[in-house]
Design goal:
468 residues; Rossmann fold; alpha/beta; two-stranded antiparallel sheet
Amino acid sequence: MATTQRKRGYFSFSFFFFFSFFFFSLVSTIEGALNQQALDRIVSLPGQPIVKFSQFSGYVTVNEEHGRALFYWLTEASIDSSRKPLVLWLNGGPGCSSIAYGATEEIGPFRVNRTGSSLYLNKYSWNKEANILFLESPAGVGFSYTNTSSDLKDSGDKRTAQDALNFLIRWFSRFPQYKYRAFYISGESYAGHYVPQLAKKIHDYNKAHSKPAINLKGFLVGNAVTDNHYDSVGTVTYWWSHAMISDEAYRSIMAHCNFTHVDSSPPCDHALNYAMNHEFGNIDQYSIYTPTCTVSSTNNTGALRLKNTLLRRRTYGFDPCTENYAEKYYNRIDVQKAMHANTTGIPYKWTACSDVLIKNWKDSQFSMLPTYKELIAAGLRIWVFSGDTDSVVPVTATRFALNHLNLTTKTRWYPWYSGGEVGGWTEVYQGLTFATVRGAGHEVPLFQPKRAFGLFRSFLAGEELPMS
């Protein structure tokens, strides 16, 4: 009997010791996360108007061996943030900053004035409806960095997706209040790769855990690079159908360019270069009906082609010089200090896009369509939208690509409305919604902020776009 009592006493003591150790470890972990949150809190940005929502920014290490760390900026929802979903925003390039574009020109709460000296409010900021997390990805973009210089010359789709997943896992540990919140991913342009690739990474990661670690509900992507072949054919078709190139140039491109191969031929390059350099004229290819910036910029504006997709570095927006204002503002020492950015002394200026990454991208998935099929089958909410005045990743390119998913139509093509006007056109399929935004260029929320905001609200609500 005494032996049994001793065993019970030992068991009770062991259980108590284990429970106490677990409890105090958990408390210590939570306290550490909250302490890091406090360090990441932005008190106020230089020249910022007074706001009621909270902001956080800083670094999350995603690879210790190479010293890769990604920079984020969280702008919490302006109302009822504890109940609103979390949305991650990614810009493309590959090699362009989500802070330069998404946060500062498109969906973020602030805009930079012309002198780069102050900020003003964006009436249609998406943080009215959700907590928005901007990520500069991959390492080498914006304030994100690597301690291994060779990383800048061998980046690609696979590493970018893995690092983004690592970022999210560690970021949710730092912000445990968001860990099981409804989570969505959004982005544009080459994020047509980043967004579904990250969604697949998260889907696979969740399948490996009994309880989903990241509560991914779906994604929303605009003017998205989707399939090299169909994108390219659709882009050239857009140029011709919008009178940007001659019949002769169109026939020459279609005759000499085989868009099923990774590498193009000299005759194809010649046909493309002739059309772009001699027939386009001085237009903003990202918004063919709006003015271009007449102020000189340090950016390289030359045409770039990546893996046989027809891409060109953007340098203009609706205020065609807005990118220049962002580069003035984010290179200010007081701004970087307020944002806890550039803490390691990055040996180059903050720029909207990294030419090194763009020119040295190593792996690029030829077609995202198989990934779309897998994620549609997984039941994610998926919306794809296109600004219809973009000639770089145009609406025709996206329609050509999506048509080859062979989806069943749920709601036939119809005009949707915003503010009493046609906001665009949409068609709803089983598993995917496609929508155009009328009068918008490559950066849809920049050119048509009200229409983009309405589209975002419908997406979050899981409702079809309004018919009237």
